[in-house]
UniProtKB/TrEMBL annotation:
Protein's UniProt name: ATP-grasp fold RimK-type domain-containing protein
ATP-grasp fold RimK-type domain residues: 210-296
Entry GO MF terms: ATP binding; ribosomal S6-glutamic acid ligase activity
Transmembrane segments: none
Annotated source species: Bacteroides muris
Entry GO CC: cytoplasm
GO biological process: SOS response
Length: 337
């Protein structure tokens, strides 16, 4: 097998290239941004690309390219089942509801009138989300009906930028005060209030819909479960002081004995049912009941802090974790079957 790998610095591809070199696997570096990408991969048997939801170019065509290569008969990572709903909370709402997965109760509206009718009857607080964004970006706690009406009005008028520099600065300031953010990162975030990069300017506005979820109180952690084939990684993540979000907090709690095994089982079951190559699931607890918040494919290439992994029988193995290695090994194994 010869694998075409689209390289992006800081992504899984850094590890995939090393893995291929060390294990004698034939590979070819390709550039997905070139118009002749289909010709580039003609002599390859498979294609792998860890694309970014934060790059406007990737948002324009990455999924379409992957679908097209998969349609030609070549195995791809990520494939259609794994990635069509990536960075799309609206899509995930319908997906989870279709298989009756225990999703946090969610509300989607596509007209201002329907959204306002709902807001007038709803209880608060609620959580407002844009369909895209990671690390808790584009997520706000809405305490009052007045705040909800303001967000709804904006959603059906000028819309929202995919990047909120003020919210980002507030998060970096909170992280800096807790010792989790270097000063230069804080400074960089401050300057983004005044200097917006051309790449961010090219991201489309989010408008024409509005999306809320029920607020689930009394969660000082959430649970992150990663399923790759028959291996399952899990850890909890702490909520920042004065915040309600764990995603993006960088407070990692990898003690496997503290992970709710119901989350492990649920994540594995959903991943199998949906046929995911990788599923990165976030859970919160409503009293004692685990609820899904969202799923992703693109995650940090780390998890080295985790203590090991469970198998499909929920048996735990203590072992160093190398997530990109697990991905490429699973991909090669399944592509060869």
């Amino acid at each position: 097998m010869k694998i075409a790998i689209c390289c992006r610095k800081g992504s899984f591809s850094d590890y995939w290239l090393t893995y291929c070199e060390e294990n004698g696997i034939s590979y070819k570096k390709v550039d997905a941004y070139q118009s002749d990408i289909m010709k580039q991969i003609e002599d390859c048997d498979a294609f792998m690309w860890h694309f970014s939801h934060l790059d406007y170019k990737d948002k324009v065509f990455a999924k379409q390219l992957l679908y097209s290569i998969e349609a030609s008969g070549k195995p791809v990572f990520p494939n259609f089942k794994t990635v069509w709903h990536f960075d799309d909370k609206l899509g995930q709402k319908y997906l989870f509801e279709s298989i009756k997965a225990p999703l946090v109760t969610s509300y989607a509206f596509y007209t201002k009138q329907e959204a306002l009718l709902w807001a007038n009857k709803a209880s608060f607080p609620k959580v407002f989300k844009l369909r895209g964004g990671a690390g808790s970006t584009n997520v706000k706690l809405v305490d009052t009906r007045k705040e909800a009406v303001s967000l709804i009005s904006r959603a059906f008028s000028r819309g929202f930028s995919a990047y909120d520099p003020l919210a980002s600065l507030k998060d970096r300031w909170r992280d800096y005060r807790s010792g989790k953010c270097p000063f230069f990162v804080l400074l960089k975030s401050f300057f983004r209030l005044f200097i917006v990069s051309s790449a961010i300017k090219l991201l489309p506005l989010e408008k024409g819909y509005v999306y809320f979820q029920d607020f689930i109180p009394n969660n000082d952690t959430d649970t992150r479960i990663v399923v790759i084939g028959d291996k399952i990684i899990g850890e909890r993540r702490g909520v920042r002081n004065g915040d309600f979000r764990a995603s993006g907090s960088h407070i990692l709690l990898p003690d496997a004995s503290k992970v709710d095994m119901r989350c492990v089982q649920l994540a594995y079951n959903v991943s199998q049912k949906l046929g995911l190559q990788i599923g990165v699931f976030d859970f919160v607890h409503d009293k004692d009941n685990p609820l899904l918040v969202e799923v992703s494919y693109g995650t940090d290439p780390d998890y080295t802090e985790c203590e090991g992994y469970w198998n499909e029988k929920l048996q735990f193995t203590s072992a160093p974790i190398n997530l990109p290695k697990m991905i490429i090994e699973s991909f090669i194994q399944n592509s060869s079957n």
